Amino acid sequence: MADDLDVNAVGSALQVSLGLFVRRLRQPLPGELTLPEVSVLSRLERAESTTSELARAEQITPQAMGMTLAGLEERALVRRRPDPADGRRVVMSVTEDGQRELRNRRSARAEQLAEALAAGGFTRAELETLRAAAPLIERLGENL
Question: Of the candidates 11, 17, 8, which has an alpha carbon nearest to the alpha carbon of residue 130?
């Protein structure tokens, strides 16, 4: 069946539709963490890191990362401490409040999507198609 489909047309259609979807998801809800803040908290949830390591991973300058971390630290979502292996370095980690914020954001986004699905007039068959497409979209993202 894949031979009958124009992969360029499929790619183009996905680019347009997923582009809109991602732009809408990136719009922060009132009082919500920004996308860069969520990304940093998610990384720190997996492992402690230095400002420069985080900046490199996010492909931004250490100064920009420092500003993001300062805002998170001001809200007690991250903490800094000396690196036990090298006291000259500072290691950042997510606090319990930071972990709670991440959980709340994930729940709020899932709820927002559920509300959009409920209000969108989707049929049962369309909802099943969307559910079946989710792992395919994830696999596509992994291959980019």
Answer: 17
Distance CA 62, CA 60 (A): 7
Distance CA 141, CA 139 (A): 5
What is the rounded distance in angstroms from the CA atom of residue 100 to the CA atom of residue 117? 26
Q: What is the value of pTM for the model shown?
A: 0.66
Q: Tell me the per-residue pLDDT of 46-103, one tens digit each, with 9 for 90 and over.
A: 999 999 999 999 999 999 999 999 999 999 999 999 988 888 899 999 999 999 999 9
Instruction: Tell me the β-bridge partners of 94.
Output: 78
Helix (H) or strand (E) holding 59: none
Nearest to 111 by CA among 25, 18, 15, 9: 25
